[in-house]
Amino acid sequence: MKRFPPLIPLLLALLGTACGGSASYTPADFTTEVYTPAYASGFDIRGTERNAATLVTVRTPWQGGSGVEQHLLVLREGIEPPAGFDGQIVKAPVRHVVCMSSSHVAMFDAIGQIRRVCGVSGIDYISNAYVNEHRCCGEVLDVGYDTNLNFERLAAMQPDLMLLYGVTGENTVVTGKLRELGIPYIYVGDYMEESPLGKAEWLMVAAELCNDRSRGAETFGGIAERYRAVKTAVAGSAPAVRPKVMLNTPYRDTWFMPSSRSFMIRLIEDAGGEYVYTKNDSDTSVAVDLEEAYLLASSADVWLNVGPCNTLAELTAQNPKFAGIPAVRNRMVFNNNRRQTPAGGSDFWESGVIHPDLVLRDLSLILGGKPAEEGELHYYKRLE
Predict the structure, then answer these.
(1) pLDDT for 40 beyond 60
(2) Which end of the chain is more exposed for a tag (fewer CB within 10 A), N or C?
């Protein structure tokens, strides 16, 4: 007589096979180091011994978000979505991505994966050539802004993932609606990084989503190497007295001065300059009254990042007193809007985030007192 295996063990074996791909996960299951950033503090990528799934963990994704963590589970190689995972889930490689920040667009462009971007926020302010070439045929769409997203359009698009950014916290109205629509999302905190190379290193998240980790590492490695080369060259030829640098212009009668820990100050220091404002070591910009700001500007050798201004006349029209500032008299005012869209979107805040090596080169020329002809600078221009 033919013998059959006991019924209960067989059922358990079958259930184990059937459910193996959808076993539950927790972040604690991901203990294998896949990518630990050298400069960025806001993310890491870990793997598990079970399979090829990886976990992208984002930390402090917005101002005041210390202690906040978000998780994105990246599945690949036919792995089924697990049951009970407390986080967002996406299958790699992603085919269609919506980027709510222009810097996210630049990340995909830097690793040669820009074709995966199908939606952006504020398309008129995006500098990327691919986006502008493909907006007319509807291959890249504008999904609106964080406070007024076009959810009907998003529902029709059904992107594989949305990359969000938050200023002071999660927009629960947006994330709640995205969950309702079944659209995975993750907050990207590149703008929170204090290191210029830390900001650029977030392109490794885009590379992970595209199954192109090696391309990401190669791209970022080149950026970091070029940055360090410029920094070393500046250090070897720095004058005894560094040029003092003023930043920004008033906004509604208030002058915001960045923290001495911010990425912009790191760039200025690595380029051989000295920031004029040393009172703010927080993680945000602080408001300075106009009189104090005017005194700071008057002590500066160079004035950078002067808002929408394209000429010295436009700058002095904001306040006639600016005409007496030494940096204005000496034509040492430079703005980071050389590359901008007709609507005023600045590529400095797009590709410049991913290419701090080019930004540092610009600043080293400006602060080094070398002839900064129009063709030499990439993101900056001298105001005439």
Answers:
(1) yes
(2) N
Question: Would you state the pLDDT for residue 216?
Answer: 98
Q: What is the DSSP letter of 241?
A: S
H/E stretch holding 118 reads strand 117-120
- Record the tokens describing residue 132, joined without a space: 């502008």
Token code pair at residue 273: 């300059």
Cα–Cα nearest to 365, from 297, 302, 275, 300: 302
Beta bridge partners of 340: 346
- Which amino acid, residue 298? S
- For residue range 351-379, list pLDDT tens digits in order: 999 999 999 999 999 999 775 555 689 99
Say if residue 53 is in the same domain as residue 174: yes
Which residue do the tokens 């999660």 mark?
170
Average pLDDT over residues 315-324: 95
29 vs 171: CA distance, rounded Å: 28
Domain that holds residue 249: 238-382
Residues 149 and 187 in one domain: yes
Q: What are phi and psi of 92, to 5 degrees?
A: -105, 145
What is the Cα–Cα distance from 275 to 254, expressed in whole angstroms? 19
Torsion of CA 206, 212, 215, 217, to 10 degrees: 60
Cis-peptide into 6, omega within 30 deg: no
- In a domain, residue 5? The reply is no
332: CATH: 3.40.50.1980
Nearest-angstrom CA–CA distance, 55 and 71: 7
- Strands 255-257 and 274-275 come out as unpaired
Reduced to 3 states, what is the DSSP secondary structure of residue 286?
Answer: strand
**How many C-alpha atoms does 279 have within 13 Å on its Cβ side?**
9
Asked whether residue 174 falls in the same domain as residue 313, the answer is no
Match 């600016």 to its residue by tokens: 322
Alpha-carbon torsion (105, 109, 111, 116), positive or negative: positive
User: Using CA of residue 288, residue 356, residue 217, residue 38, what is the dihedral sign?
Assistant: negative
> Three-class SS of residue 169?
coil
